[in-house]
Structure formats: structure tokens, C-alpha cells
Amino acid sequence: MRVFFDTEFIEDGKTIDLLSIGMVREDGATFYLENNEADLSRGGDWVQHNVIVHLDWLNHGATRSEIAATVRQFAGDKPEFWAYYADYDWVVLCQLFGTMMDLPKGWPMICYDLRQWLDMNGHKDVKQPDGDDHHALSDAKWVAATAQKYEAKCL
User: Fold this and answer.
1) Owning domain of residue 106
2) Interatomic CA distance for residues 154 and 36, integer angstroms
3) Can you name the residues that pair with 22 across neighbouring β-strands?
4) CATH number, residue 67
5) Are the CB atoms for 79 and 107 separated by under 8 Å?
């Protein structure tokens, strides 16, 4: 099962701290959670004004361990992960479980990058809209829709 996802996070060049995660499975199921253990004071101006203002812990807050359990259940035993500019998203997802070696049994140690796939298949002009809110579930939905749209064009 393909799982398209996005995260919002705080990073300072040394650490990456999850703020929120959104996922969309290829069957259309979705989920979204926010890390209520994140230290929001570490977020720079851009993160404060474009991400943190959209967080709603009252309705979506969970601990890192609760998020990890939900991700594991949602993704299943043999997922294929996809994200857009996936590098930091993949690190943040793996860190929910500890190290990459601690990923659930059957899970891959790679994440496919939609940006790279689009470039390699002649779709360099396809870009995620800049004007959209930076919200992990909205972004994950865009990743899923874009992957499915352009995959059909390449077949």
C-alpha cells in the first residue's frame, strides 16, 4: 500500500522536531496528528507565521508515542512511502520509532521522493502551490493527487 505523507517540523541544522504529520493511503484513507510534546519556542519566524498558527492541539494533539502507534497502524505491514522533497519528512517519520533500525518489521528503509520522480519523468514544471497553507494533511493530499495524476500520464 502506498502512503503519501507530509510533515511540518522545526529544524535548526542539528535537530528536526516534528510538529505535525498527515498521511493519505492510496485507498483514500487519511489521518492527521500534531505533536503536543514539541517545543514551539524553538520555531523560527517562518515556522511561527506559516505552521504553528495552524496547529490545533485541542482537536489533533498526541504524544510522539501515540503518533508512532497511529502511523504504524495506518501504514500497515508493508507500506511504500512517498513525500514531496522527502528528505526531512522521512527522517522525522523514522525518528518516531527511534533510529531507522527501529522501524517496524517489514517497513522499507527508503522513501520515494515525488519531486525527484516528477523531474525524472519530464514534469519539472509541476510545483506545489506556494500560496497554500503549510498544513501536513493538505500537503499530503496534494502529494497523493499529484502522484496519481502524473503516474497515469507516464503509463
Assistant:
1) 2-154
2) 40
3) 6, 32
4) 3.30.420.10
5) yes
pLDDT tens, 100-131?
Answer: 899 999 999 999 999 999 999 999 999 988 76
**What is the Cβ-side half-sphere exposure of residue 151, based on CA atoms within 13 angstroms?**
10
Sign of CA dihedral 105, 91, 135, 141: negative
d(CA 142, CA 24): 10
How far, in whole angstroms, is CA 6 from its chain's centroid? 2
Give the predicted TM-score (pTM) of the model. Answer: 0.93
| Edge-to-edge order in the sheet of strand 2-11 | 61-62, 30-35, 16-25, 2-11, 80-83, 112-113
pLDDT of residue 60: 86
Q: Which three cell numbers, joined as nine digits, stand for 85? A: 522533497
Query: Which amino acid is it at 1?
Result: M
Q: Distances in Å between the alpha carbon of 47 and those of 19, 43, 61, 87, 98?
A: 10, 5, 18, 18, 24
Domain count across the chain: 1
